[in-house]
Amino acid sequence: MPTLTKTDGVALYVQVRETLREQIKSGLFAPGQKLPSEDELSSQFGVSRMTVRQGISDLTDEGVLYRRRGIGTFVTQFHVERDHNKLTGFSDTAKAEGFEGKVQLLSREVVPAKLMVAKALALHETEPVIRIQTLRWANDVPVTVYDEYVPYKLCHELLQEDLRSRAAWEILETYGYTIKRAVQKIEARLADTDLATLLNLEENAPILYKHRIILAEDGAPVELILCYNRGDGYSVKMTLVR
Fold first, then answer.
1. What is the mean pLDDT of residues 133-141?
2. What is the rounded average pLDDT of the residues 196-204?
């Protein structure tokens, strides 16, 4: 642990804060790892416990750390921030935010449309749809489960396409469907057993659920996407205007 100095014009709590930040960036403290106690850190840094607490508080306010009452302070999991002012694919988000994104195909099959799916896609119930389930990774952390539905009659070629680098709606555009907008709702939910296993979470951990309908230029729905995002590693950014 580096020795802090009172003579360089930088407050001690700032030095504590920035040293911890660099240690987290370097991997000394990994995502999800518990930090040493405030007493241990104050001894290692050679400063008061109050100074350590102030530095930790700043990192907690930023979302770099989080506290669990009665347990300790932990490093936040890698966080994906999606800009929902425009429709973008996962690979574009990875490039924009500078993380390594990976898409793992879990399943791809033709199934009869359930009522909810049929309503979203303006289909008859039990009409065939292509169901695609994928797991999205960010820097080796599983962050999102995608459950996607596309009417089979629109593009059966999706059954052969590589879905690791492009979203299904992006592939639809190569087959002549011009995508103009999406309608989406977001809500908080709890992870069931299957989701918890895929996202490496505890059962009933918070997740951010998104229900998104992709619309073509003529307003026809061409894809339904159900997204299950881990609550400790995903946030949504939007610009509100008046």
1. 90
2. 93
CATH of domain 80-237: 3.40.1410.10
Q: Kindly provide the residue ranges of all beta strands, DSSP E only, lying in the chain, ordered along the sequence.
A: 65-68, 72-75, 80-83, 101-112, 128-138, 141-151, 179-190, 206-216, 221-230, 234-237
Location of structure tokens 């400790």? 232
Mean pLDDT confidence for 182-197: 95
Q: What are the pLDDT digits (tens) for 29-40?
A: 888 889 999 999
Closest CA to 60 of 70, 71, 74: 74
CATH of the domain spanning 12-75: 1.10.10.10
Residues 6 or more apart whose CB falls under 8 angstroms from that of 49 comprise 38, 39, 42
Nearest to 155 by CA among 179, 138, 185, 139: 179
